[in-house]
Design a protein that fits this description.
- Belongs to the cycloisomerase 2 family.
- The chain is mainly β.
- The chain has one domain: 7 Propeller (Methylamine Dehydrogenase, Chain H).
- It is built from one helix and 31 strands.
- Strand 2 and strand 3 form a beta hairpin.
- The radius of gyration is 20 Å and the shape is globular.
Length: 436
Amino acid sequence: MFLRRAAANAVPTPSRSSAHLSARSGSLSRSRRAEGRPAHLLTQLVKGVVIMASVAATHTFAQSASTTAPAGGVYNLIVGTYTGGKSEGLYVYHFDTQTGDMQPVSVAKTVNPSFLVVSKDNRFVYAVNELPGDNGPASLRGDVSAFGFDAASGQLTFLDKVSAQGNDPCYLSLSPDGHYLFVANYSVAADPGGSFAVLPVQQDGKLGESVLTVHHEGGGPVKGRQDNAHVHSTVFSPDGRYLFTQDLGTDKLWTYLYTPDGSRGLVSPTEWRYTDVKSGSGPRHLIFGNDGRHAYLTSELAATVTVFAYHDGHMKLEQVEKLAEPGFEGTQGAAALHLSPDGKFLYVSNRGDANDISIFAVDGESGKLKRVGRQSSLGKSPREFAIDPTGQWLIVGNQNSDTAYVFRRDQQTGLLEPNPKRIDIGSPVDFKFVAQ
């Protein structure tokens, strides 16, 4: 707290919103330490922000799992859920890309693993433990759990758990060099508010305690949803130089330089600091196009998808598309978005009363979108979905209906074919394919 106050008082900022960075060193609140972590700290003052970070030395990971087609066309599919109802944690299935069938393999018990990421070598899985939620005490911090994963057998083995250093962790990304795991803390509570934390990844797959925590401050005009900052995702640029943190509460895409060599600390604000989006829109998730020249953003509160032209850390707005049908009057909530493996189609989920997936064709030159269809999720609250690496199937989870549906996908038109396969699973909310 001292560092946050000192940073805020050091240099006034003209913006309503600001970001403060702090780090931990010396004794840790838990018994485990990050192995191989240098004892010294790198300290820097940048535009009124105090940055203190320790640099860990670990081996390389990447954010997404391998997309090489396995023998027999069968992948592991790991499903994250909300627990407390019919779910116990993480579920592993064998997914047959020839038929779209799913066979249950194993379960790893853990609390509210609502988002997960898999190491590039498929040996480790990291999942948030999203706590405390809407009704929990603000003093309760969420966690991130690490699991070893045997892709051949589909078995998860718990390794360790560390604090996310904030409330309601909801998104994870591995740094391009694989040395760090970045976790977005949405934070329902105003104190501590939205933030992201940086966890070092050890060679054995375990996580060290946070070496850096960045707090955003500010808010937006939508009462009850934008009373304070809500960091909803942490996404690296295609070249790995920039980190974008989408803040639903402040209506900003905060932009940081990633400098693991310590030249500017671990992360530092860019000169322009952020990209503004429409007031009250609530930016949620960001992905980059296959060409690396365009980016796509869901705005939850406005229920839109936005196209940006991208170059060297800068975003230029090109297009905004509404997700709902013309004349729709129910509640909405834009959530996930994913490109087909070939990058030709973009799919976006919309919750509330809409409960559907919008399908857009992507112009190969301009990156702009053209709607080609819309598909009901056949349930309530399609928070997340995934397209299998072969591009033949799309699976969507209906969080509030305890169901998931596997749609066959027409790779020429992008449309989802009728009569999907139904899977009963408690509160499914995230899906990751992993080659065996």
